[in-house]
Design a protein that fits this description.
By secondary structure, the chain is an alpha/beta fold. The protein contains 7 helices and 8 strands; from the N terminus they run H-H-E-H-H-E-H-H-E-H-E-E-E-E-E.
Length: 207
Amino acid sequence: LYVLDRIVEKSKHVKSTSQVTNYYSAVSCVSTGFGNNAGRILLFSMIEPSIAPGKIRPREKEEIKTPMKPIHDEYQLLARDLVKKRLGLDHFIFGKEGHIQHELATTHFLSSYTGGHLYHYFMFNPAFTFAGYSSDGEHLYFSIYGNLTRECAYDVNFTCRLSNGLSTSKFLIGDGIREDRDVSLGVLDASQSVTVWFEHEDKYFLP
């Protein structure tokens, strides 16, 4: 709580004369500042990049038919680079009027591939409360608090060794699916689990 209170206190004295509209470039620049140190990045965004690199454009007619397929692979490549640097990323997305739809099929790699978390606040309103539940502001506060305080492992590498006839097909990690044989993550925290999908190489026939 002390850390969050200090962030709020210091932000009162920060004046910004420009707006960062391309978080793809921002993440690329921030990742170079860690040097050889492992760590995690907390990314807060409301609108998606509208200029290159990482530009998010409207889907073409044929692309609309496959909404879960990325429109390009730039975010996946950036996520791979973050993992190589032993970095994880938590992405907080805030929807607002006119910007309630986000191209998550393309941008989710920043969090899912690195071992981070994805938080999506639809029509974010810090004071809104529904049926007595916590407000969006409280939800955001404790989400950040959890990210800063839960135990984490960095530079995570693991594989799954099986008996003959068995193979791994997929790994379900946090918010995404990985189809790699050897999985590397920038971060893995105590709230996450790893699910392994097995396949048997032989076929069985009922008599």
